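I am writing to request your help with a piece of structural work I have in hand. I set the record out below, with my sincere thanks for your time.
___
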Amino acid sequence: MRSAQEYLDGLRDGREVYYRGERVDEVVSHPELGLSARHGAIDFHGPSPEPSPYYAIPRSAADLLERSALIEESTRRGRTLVVLVKEIGTDALFALLRVLHGTATYGRVEAYYEYCRDRDLALAVAQTDVKGDRGKGPAGQADPDLYLRVVDRREDGIVVRGAKVHTSYAANADEVIVIPTRSLDEGEEDWAVAFAVPVATPGLKLFCSDFLHGTDDDWAYPISSGRKMIETLTVFDDVFVPWDRVFLDRDVGRAGALALTFVEYHRMTAVSYKLPLLDALVGLGFSLAEANGIARASHVREKLTWLVAYAESVRALIRAACERAHVDEATGIAYPDPMTTNIAKWTFARDYYPAVERVIDLAGGLLVTGLGGHDWSSEVVRPYMEKYFAGAASAEERLALINLASELLARGYAGYQGVLAVHAEGSIEAEKMMVYRSYDPGPAKAYVRELAGLD
């Protein structure tokens, strides 16, 4: 394992990154992107001769439970913001090892896995194509580059062109792994490609979203002032990929399998990293009720009970998904039960905004009408805040809770987490579809026929 400083030093490699329309000279020292890089450093615990536990290939339900707990803990240390620089990449590596086992490129996958593990690399995953007209597949688009594709095959490798979107942490990763976003049909072979390249590869351009453009007011913004996830439009402008980094090429049959197998792991990762956020909502509900002096009201207790049941249901479901693990016969690699994993993710996403609504109700209007950190620092204003914002708790305690709640419920960080809840790691409709596809109704139907006297 590398140290945090070794990880940060590795990002100074001349990568082509843009933020707010301008080329970034170096991400670590950048006032915004540097926050994201230092947040990613949470996942580095060296120097140590032992490999990172993120790279441990799961072989059993116990291994999956350990991985889930590791992801939950790193996110807790990230103050509800997932770190993800090793979590998502190893999800993709496990999928590649399973889907491509027995193929001509499996040796490349094994070698790449060992390369990343032995160097303790930070990995981004570029899966979601920009897609263009959603009613058409890759071959039907007016612009064929709206799904990433191979535009040239040479003796020494391939050349790819196109773009991926929603790529998390690519600006502060060492490598980016590219996999298909969907199943493909005959005639779409050029889009059936999976590979990996260093982020500093010529022609790879990262255009960073500034949605969480920061503030130095750590009193009013206790999370987003010091934490950041950077998402990119990841453009491959005729990028050369050597053959030893090409894992899938022209295999439309395995393109869809790779996309779905990645999701089997990544939705487990997703629910695992949501647990600290849910615990924060529950804790805020109880703490704000006490600070506002309303904890004994019956409707407040009903809201708190609902929040507890929601958080603990999601936690129980993801643990059940790990405990109901399956083991791939060909590779011996374990994976969480797809149906239970998707029920866990669906439950989280479906009930996230109802949970937010309940905590907003317990918090009150100060979430958006309260004064800021400059006011609290003012010798003139602060005495009035201390006098008039006191409740069942002191103004200092109550406002600290209000500010945290405002981050999680009302400000930009809240909007970011809300969109993640609905869309990240697959939409609500995608999760419902996977639950339906994963469930075998045969035993239930047979039991009904028995009860009805039909068999």
About this structure: The radius of gyration is 24 Å. The domain at 4-254 is CATH 2.40.110.10 (Butyryl-CoA Dehydrogenase, subunit A; domain 2). The chain has two domains: 4-254, 267-445.
